[in-house]
Amino acid sequence: MRLYNGVRITNNPAIFSGRPIVNGHRIAVHDIVVHHRIGMLVEELAQGYGLTPEEVVAALSWLRSLSSRLGRPRKGLTSVA
Questions:
Q1: Does 77 reside within a domain?
Q2: Of 78 and 19, which is predicted with more confidence?
Q3: How many domains are contained in the chain?
Q4: Which of 19-23, 24-28, 73-77 has the lowest mean pLDDT?
Q5: 57 Cβ partners below 8 Å, 6+ apart?
Q6: Which of 10, 50, 54, 55 has CB 3.0 to 4.6 Å from 1, enough for a Cys bridge?
Q7: Is the Cβ–Cβ distance between 36 and 43 less than 8 Å?
């Protein structure tokens, strides 16, 4: 479990086969990232998924952090700040 902007991103093998989710929601980080990449705004994602904008930004930050740790830039991931 990691904290991003005060929001926990967790994974549990019993939920979505261990894919990372926003803690307290059954929403996969992958789904948020995919919709952001096709043009949905943070506010649209928050409203559509029942999240706060901070939770959406945390999900996007999680991927950016993972990519950084792996040394690979993520194509198409834009700034959210």
A1: no
A2: 19
A3: 1
A4: 73-77
A5: 4, 5, 7, 42, 80, 81
A6: 10
A7: no
Of residues 47 and 75, the one with the higher pLDDT is 47
Position with higher pLDDT, 2 vs 45:
45
CATH code of the domain containing 23: 1.10.10.10
Angle at the Cα of 12 from the Cα atoms of 66 and 20, rounded to 5 degrees: 30
Is the distance from CB of 3 to CB of 55 less than 8 angstroms? no
3-class state of residue 15 by DSSP: strand
| pTM: predicted TM-score of the whole model, two decimal places | 0.76
**Assign residue 51 a region: left if phi > 0, alpha if psi is -120 to 50, beta otherwise?**
beta
Residues 77/37, Cβ–Cβ less than 8 Å = yes
Q: How far apart are CA 48 and CA 69, in angstroms?
A: 30
